[in-house]
Design goal:
Immunoglobulin-like; 0% helix; five-stranded mixed beta sheet; single chain; 188 residues; mainly beta; 17 strands
Length: 188
């Protein structure tokens, strides 16, 4: 049996990566209870305990996606307290300052050819460019955040270019090695 007059009033922060501690403020939290389960969508959050008279603290689990928070408290003889948040918690990619380029390749690429960047934290990349002026129109972030494949724009003149990865929050990260674009038909 669910108990009436129990609600999620809010939570802080409202976004963050897996591992984020979230404080949930509740209305009607009982003084004593036997068990607490908290979910973000279908993923169970780690319950850390009470954070105050009317609040609890939980941790966003690995693999969670943005969704509503659901709290279920077992109050023994009185039944279950169930509540769902009015807004979703937004799961973010993590610390975008961790974007790091390890390598760019291949050694030589023609305009219109495929190239790649390897590194870490690449899931937070929003745009790729060759040098400061040549925007890459087509790129694919591979799962795990360790590689991005991209097409060198067909109008790119031959030359050596740093690969620049742009993020929405930490600016740009520039490769230390150069991507060599060669003329069509040239394999060197």
């Amino acid at each position: 049996m669910a108990v009436a007059n129990f609600a999620i009033m809010g939570f802080q922060p409202t976004q963050g990566p897996s591992g984020t501690n979230v404080t949930i403020t509740l209305f009607g939290l009982p003084d004593f209870y036997e068990g607490t389960r908290v979910y973000i969508g279908a993923a169970e959050m780690t319950y850390l305990g009470k954070a105050g008279r009317d609040s609890i603290r939980v941790v966003v689990p690995d693999g969670a996606t943005s969704d509503f928070i659901y709290v279920q408290i077992d109050d023994g003889d009185r039944g279950y307290f169930d509540a769902q948040s009015a807004q979703q918690f937004t799961v973010t990619a993590g610390d975008v300052t961790a974007v790091r380029i390890v390598s760019v390749g291949p050694a030589n690429v023609q305009p219109g050819g495929l190239a790649f960047v390897t590194g870490s934290g690449l899931n937070s990349v929003q745009q790729v460019s060759l040098g400061p002026t040549i925007q890459v129109q087509t790129f694919q972030k591979l799962p795990g955040g360790a590689r991005i494949n991209f097409s060198v724009p067909s109008t790119t003149p031959p030359g050596d270019y740093p690969v620049i990865l742009h993020t929405t929050t930490s600016g740009s990260v520039r490769s230390t090695s150069q991507l060599r674009v060669v003329a069509r038909g040239d394999s060197n």
